[in-house]
Amino acid sequence: xxxxxxxxxxxxxxxxxxxxxxxxxxxxxxxxxxxxxxxxxxxxxxxxxxxxxxxxxxxxxxxxxxxxxxxxxxxxxxxxxxxxxxxxxxxxxxxxxxxxxxxxxxxxxxxxxxxxxxxxxxxxxxxxxxxxxxxxxxxxxxxxxxxxxx
Length: 150
What we know:
The chain is α/β, with parallel strands linked by helices. It is built from five helices and six strands.
């Protein structure tokens, strides 16, 4: 009976642990929002297209305009976005772009890093071809949220 009780406790702990992992992963998905200029006609992008945009592999919008990438320098939204969408650590993301700039591989695409979400949103307001990400809590009507499809 004592062994059964220990096994039930262990099983309960494992199930709770699994639940919290999934719950935190689902919560993390809501921690950021991909945003563009309100006049950008793009309503949705796949996660793969976003990865390609933020790694500099996809450089133009469907209308042919060069995509201007806007990224945060740090913060939870930055870490979560890079982990889920770009599949890079913040350090590897920064190194990737430094290499692209140094080698001239950047082409027509450009990236701008911002210390604050407000500065990033201001940049998007002035650049209709820009795309960025912020925490979901910072969303307002000055920018348009892009729906991410898998």
